[in-house]
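ingest -> validate -> predict -> emit
validate: passed (alphabet ok, no gaps, 141 aa)
predict: started
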Amino acid sequence: LIKLCNNARGKPLEMEPNKESTCQVVSYPLDIPTITELVNDPAAGAISTFIGITRDNFNGKPVLMLEYEAYETMAEKELIKLCNNAREKWPDIYHIAIYHKIGQVPIGEASVVIAVSSPHRRDAMRATEYLIDTLKITDSN
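emit:
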């Protein structure tokens, strides 16, 4: 929280950053620095990120690429619900960004980026872990 003096009496006034969630399902490569910057806030002491990339194997079998399909509008609404659930669990977190790529995702390319900012690292890290764990459960259904 930011403390400001609001008048001649010098009483502190507490201001909280605007809390935003940005969720997008896109068909182009994910720009990790830009997504991370979306959650940056002068009051944040931590930004936690998760970047899921395509690896070259799954259960001992070679993988050439992954391909994701989604109804984008509905998927984005579900991602916003996921953000709202995280905010209920960690009300001090500031901003959340979740981007998921659809279409072909070659080896080494990011398919999902999650970024969370908060005053302290613990909430940002826990919220990020919750978001990817819950997203993976939703993805596999």
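The helical segments are 32-38, 72-89, 121-140.
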